[in-house]
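Table S2 (continued). Query chain:
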Amino acid sequence: MSVGERSVDLGTRYLRATIADRVLRVQIDRAAKRNAITQDMYRGLKRAAILADADAELDVLCLTGSGDVFAVGGDMSGESEDPHGLAQELDPTDHFPFRHLEQCRKIVVAAVNGLCHAGGLNLMLFSDLAVASDRATFRAPELRRGVPDPWIASRLAEFVGIGAAKYLLFTGAAIDAREAAALGLVAKVVPHDQLAAQVEWTLEQIRLTAPKARAMVKGDLNRRLPSPDAGLFRRSILSPEMAEGFAAFLEKRRPVWPRE
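Corresponding output:
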C-alpha cells in the first residue's frame, strides 16, 4: 500500500478497495471464478458508489478487474458470503449497483483490463467512461440464459445505436476492443501494457475539473437516459426459461427452450 493510501471494506473479500489521491479504486478480484460477480459483490459495488457519492474529498470511483478479466457477469452458482444479510433485502434486484453508479455525483471510470461480459458489461455501461485494454472483449449473452436484462437493454443502444444493440443482444456475439471503440462502446483503447498509465492520466484530467460543475454536467447528461424497467427482471426470476437457461449454462449444453 502506497503512502497516504487506505483500504476500504466493502463487505466481501472479492473486492479490493483503496482510497488515495481523491480516487476510490475498486478491483474485482475473484480469479478462480473469472471474476464472476456474486450478490455480495454486487452489493459491495453498490456500497462503493454510495461511499464515493457521500465523500466530498473524492472525485472519482474507478472500477477494474484482475488478471485478464474485468468481469464475466453474475455468478450462477448461488455462492454467498453473507446469505443471512442478503436474505434481509426483500427485493433481490436491490443488490445491483447500476443505478447507484449513475446517481453517484462523482465520475465513475471503468478500466477494462480484459473480458467484459454480461454483468461486467452492465458495470461499464453504467459508468461514465471506459478505458479499455486492446485485449478486452465485450459480450451480452443474457438472452442465452433466458434473462431479459433490463439494465443492458436500457443502455446498450444509447452507446452503439439500436441496430448494433439488437445485433449484440440477439446474437450474443463477442466483439473485440477495436470494434467496441468504433461502435462508441468505450471511450479509449490502448495497448494492454499502457492501460494503467492511460487510466492514471484520465483520472488526473478528471481531477482538474471543478467538482460541483462536473457533478451538474453528469446529472444533466444522465437525465436524458431512459429508466430501466427493473420489474422486467423481477417478473422473469425463476421462470421456466430462466431455469433452463441457467441449467444449460451450468451443464455446458445448448438450451432447450420451453414452448408455452
